[in-house]
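agent> Task received from the user: take the single chain below, predict its 3D structure, and emit structure tokens. No templates, no multimer pairing.
agent> Plan: (1) validate residues, (2) run structure prediction, (3) serialize to tokens, (4) report one or two observations.
agent> Step 1 OK, no nonstandard residues flagged.
tool_call: predict_structure(input=
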Amino acid sequence: MSLQARSGGPYPSNAAGLGGLPTKATDVPICSVFIVLYLFSAATNSTIFRRNRRKNHKFILSVLLTGFSMARVGTLVLRIAWANRQHNIRLAIAAQIFVNAGILIIYILNLILAQRILRAKQPAFGWHPILRVSYKILYCGIGLALAMVIASVVVSLYTLNTHTRSICRDIQLAALTYLLCFTCLPLIHIAAAFLLPKSNEETFGKGGIKNKTIILLISSSLCMVIAGFKAGANWSPPRLANNPAWYDSKACFYIFNFTLEISILCTFIFGRIDQRFHVPNGCKQAGDYTRLQQKSSLEAAIGENSDDAGGKGDI
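)
tool_result: status=success, residues=315
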């Protein structure tokens, strides 16, 4: 009896998985390239946040993007470590969990951006108390889905009971399906914003609502592709590791995960969401976008006039 069997696992899975078993020759160079790209994203978003903060322009979502990029660096480092320690099952578990967990930050960020568009186009509906409570429930659902995925993956690798593994698979499928539905919510928000009867529209950030909508459509669509690929691959009948399907290939793994994620990050960075989607601090109800923005602009103008007056006095 092996040491793993005596200790109760973890037991290696004989089923094919997304990306397959990482190797030094293939995965290490690819992961290294993506690490550089994510580090660039982290540095850029961190720089954007610091520069905006110095101008009293607070945009916390830049911090989220920085955190996501650094989390992805950790994910890729784990995969490189796994490639060098292929038989380390615990390392494989950690690498798989990080792959599924990181993208949730982008899912949440998309919904936040969609909220802002809906609240600007349809203030009364967008700020309705029932909708605000629904958001809290949805965010709790994200946390629950993540916990379900982590727990089911770990339990399935620490048991040989086929019934328990079947239950774990069902839990994973339920969580992945929820995440797929969650990625569709921003598009539903956009549809509601533009299809509902016109209301007293508000403005926020820089630029028109059309450009904001295009940025969100690109990001949300890519997230739907990522979540749809993962859900579809996992809903498909399991296959043995020596007979993987096309969606288990390394090409699909890197394209439908990291390549699409980098595309989303580039859309956010070059689309300057820190300027376009910025809303004033303290927005809590319909009308706050416009009212607080005007107040902020007035205070800035008064400050500039005071500086000018002080400068002339010095002269």
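agent> Step 4: summary for the user.
Residues 303-309, 311-315 have pLDDT under 50 and may be disordered.
agent> Done.
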